[in-house]
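The pair is set out directly below:
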Amino acid sequence: MVKRILHAYSNRFLSRWIVLVYDIFAVYITYIFANLIRHNFEYLTINPYVMESQSILVMLAYITSFLLTRSYSGIIRHTSLNDAIRIFKATGAAFVVLLGINFFLASRNTGQSLIPPMSVLTIHFLLTPLFLLGSRFIIKSIYNDIIRKERKKRMRVMIYGAGAAGMLTRNALLQDMFFQYEIVAFIDDNHGKVNKMLDGIPVVAGEKALTEAYVKRNEVQQMIIAIQKLDINHKKQIIEKGLELHLQVKVVPAIEMWINGQLSSNQLREVKIEELLERDPIRLDNNQVATDLHNKVVMVTGAAGSIGSEIVRQVLQYKPARLILVDQAESPLYELQFEINSTEPFTSFSDRALYLIASVKDRFRMEKIFSTYRPQVIFHAAAYKHVPLMEDNPYEALLVNVFGTKVVADLAVKYGTQKFVMISTDKAVNPTNIMGASKRIAEIYTQCLSNKQTQFITTRFGNVLGSNGSVIPLFRKQIEKGGPLTVTDFAITRYFMTIPEACNLVLEAGAMGLGGEIFVFDMGRPVRIFDLAKKMIQLSGLRPEIDIKIVETGLRPGEKLYEELLAGQENTMHTHHPKIMIARVRQYNKSEIERFMNELSGLIVEWDEFALVRKMKEMVPEFISNNSVFSRLDIQGAPD
């Protein structure tokens, strides 16, 4: 019966005036109890007429105080510490006023029959907030225990972190409208907290809690990491351990991301795969980068792409005199313009940015841009990057990656650009595809142009997490569709780096370069794509091969099992930055390169793809096609 009534009215909120009437009634009841306690429950010794007349003054004092503090305006089912403070303020104010009246009338020796004794007032003051708060918390408890338990799914949780953030997380979970969270334990690395209780919940050491026996015994379904500043490697260990135990792992966002400074359960976010691949933050020599960019005219080609747009964001913060954003993709460039014009801290620099729709292979358009703006520093990120597509379109790969780079590089020399930083790729090392070979030719050409006036610098790194067309966004889409996840080969590995990390290193390498260098970045350890797929499925709360299959599809044209950062004949020299090295590469004769470029230029207009690729292989002898129609060119004496 009680459940039916509560369920029927659980979506309604009690009028604050009804709450006020209830509070006034509670004041009256507690006043009677105060008199009974004062007279040792010998009710025959109490004069009912005197008590009634005295209660009027008490009620008036409390009503006035309730109205002034609005202690009755809270939603009872959500009673909190703030509501308790308001009630204490209201009852305290009424008590002080009554004491004042009592002293005033007692000093004049008048109205004694209207004033309750000091002992009754004191007892009444102690009883009233206890009764008001007690009744509110009882109602809240009934609501939580009966109504919300019927509505919500049960979720048993461990919270990693027994500090302030852990307690705030616990409170947020208890307020959730969709899940009935049961906090099994707090996990903490501080052994001083272990084996203690936190609000009735045990604090357990990680080595005990993160075991299959403990999770199974306590039916734990989810783990929430609530430590704000946690070492990256330790965080990865915790997440991976949770995934091994088939737990859904969530993270409390940074405090500055909390809405209105308060945490709610719907702000808890899923762990991103990037967090399992990230490394310690890079420390930049900001002074050197600032000297290189501050008050300079900087141009970024391919500015709307994944790498280009992040370079734009980072360069803006060094306050260039002007930042020229060049890209042929209209919509992405518009989206970047909107972001810069409407997002802090970029809005204060937005007047420095100029957005130009242009293709790097259009010499006339690029010449006009150079002659008008005279860029002093260029970050050349414009390129075609998708291996299988470029294998089918070698003409476009050469036109943009080689001759587009040639256009920008030649104009940089002509108009006296100080630095030209080219964004290359690990696929340029021992290339097995058109894309990688085209980037290697671009590297060779720009190296040959380096002189005292214009310094040409190349930066070479692997895959960046979350970039357009990369494997992680693809896996996310496949998971959303219910699978399967497609992996070209179960043994395939790749290097990964976050976009901000890669662009940080590009700026640093550009600042330290003196011309002619190819900078190689420390990419960490290669990651097996099959393992990446499994972890992404687990992070989605699903089970690999049970809920979502992983399917091997075979290597695509031009694709190889593993990437390299250095060719066989190359080695590295260290720099002052531990994550940046200089590759020792084979040196080319400038006249020889110019002859090759002229021959390529002649071939490109003939639309003979095999002739083009043969010339590329002649220019880059280590270019051996893999799983491609052009593989027959690698067989000596093979016909076209």
